[in-house]
Amino acid sequence: MSRRLATDGTPSLRSRCDSIVSNMRKSTMSQAIKQYFKTTTLHGFKYLYSAYYVDRVGWLLCCCASACCAGVLCAVLWERFLEVPALLTLWDNTGSDEYIEEKVPAVVVCPPTESIAELFLDKISPNKTETERIPITLARLLTGKSTAKDQLLLLNDLLVSNNITLPEVMMNYTPSCNEHTKKCRYEEYMVPCEQLFKKEITTWGICCVMRPKRLKRITQAFVPRMHQTHTLNLLLQCTHGSRLYGCQFITIYESEEYVQSNTLLPGYYYMAQLRFTAIPENPATENLVENTCVSDKGYSRTLCMLKCAERWCGCSDPLHFAMDKSKKKLPMCPITSMGCLRASEYKDNITCNCLPPCKKITTYMVLESSPMNVVKQTIDPFYDGINVTPSIVVNLRVNVGHSRIFVLNPTETWLTLLSSLGGVFNMFLGVGLFSALEFLFLVLVKLPIGIKRSSEIDPTTTYHPPVVHY
């Protein structure tokens, strides 16, 4: 007698089939991974499948320790790469203009704000007694000093009633540069001041500004390229009628951050000795590490801080509003709100996160003065016909020979960093090119083959149990 134990594909048998296939897949993948660990070139990993339990635990601890050491050294390499990306070397700046395009700085001569305010008040204010403190108020306001609120309100009312803004007042009532700059000489050659100095709106007010490119364009035909010292002589007059005023004298290089103004008094001769230390922007070291500096043309940390203060105060500085030609989203600040922008208190209340410019330059200037009567005995034709009382003579000497230009030479780039990281991983874990090929071979070849072989068994095939004969 025989009996066939058949099935009609009940769920219990199908699930058993699926379980068998799943176990076969896992077994195949496990065998491939086990074989990989037995033959890999990674340090110590083949002993993780040792027949002895103590060996497996010991080598597991060793592998973890090696991985930790590799991680620590990689972190140290990365930190060093971020902090010291390049080496500073001194460049011989006397024989080449490769890095400093203009060795003469921009020269800024600013007439006193008080004299501009007086010219403005003479034409619009009939009450001289009420507005006599306005010039001092305006000067203190532009320099960020505390000012009386009633004087600010009075100045604001004057501007509103005359339908004029502060930049328009300063631009319209500031005399032309021809009235302040009388004579200009570069090296031994007289140059026209009206071509050098142009009236511009600056953070110090309305000033006469000499850009180095203008000087270079005028003098490049007759001035030699190599100079140990660049000399610029200026004859200035800052007067208003019979009243004598001093001038603000400023020298500034592109990307120079901290600039100090010097007050020049009429009747004096000034000798200014200037030298600089520069780290030019070098394409070889640009973008070594992201977000460490800004290489945008015209960028400065001072300008970034000003824009940050404008966002915090909710309005734009009137002088900056007039200088910036880009489309602004913030309205112009009224006079009564300028204290928020120009006072230093806001720096303690806001965080701007302004990065430094990639091009860095600092200057050191020594300014010496002497009475103008010392020039009476000179035979220099530059001083012919000078009225000593209202005149100011400035002799600016840029000492290129004693200045320093430092060049950034990269010590670590992405390639050297990759080499260092590869050496660390190879020393502690044995990770190299062949190890990478082994791992890729496991992932892309062996595991897919194992999965494919285990899938050749069709779980939907009808299961026929064996026939039992009695």
Q: Can you offer a commentary on this structure?
A:
38% of the residues lie in helices and 21% in strands. The radius of gyration is 39 Å and the shape is elongated. α1 runs antiparallel to α13 (433-455). The protein has helices spanning 11-39, 53-83, 113-124, 134-142, 149-161, 166-173, 193-196, 212-219, 301-313, 318-323, 338-342, 414-429, 433-455; strands at 2-4, 86-91, 106-110, 181-186, 189-190, 197-202, 205-210, 229-237, 239-240, 243-244, 247-252, 262-264, 268-279, 360-371, 391-399, 404-410, 467-469. Strands 2, 4, 5, 8, 13, 14, 15 and 16 form an 8-stranded mixed beta sheet that branches. A 5-stranded antiparallel beta sheet has the order 6-7-3-11-12. The chain has a two-stranded antiparallel ribbon with strand order 1-17. The protein is of the alpha+beta class and 470 residues long.
Residue runs with pLDDT of under 50 for 5 or more positions: 1-9, 95-100
Shape: elongated
**CATH topology descriptor of the domain at 88-105 and 176-280 and 359-407:** Acid-sensing ion channels like fold
Q: Give the oligomer, counting copies of the same chain as homo and different chains as hetero.
A: single chain
Q: What is the averaged pLDDT score?
A: 75
Total strands: the figure is 17
Strand content: 15-25%
Structural Rg = 39 Å
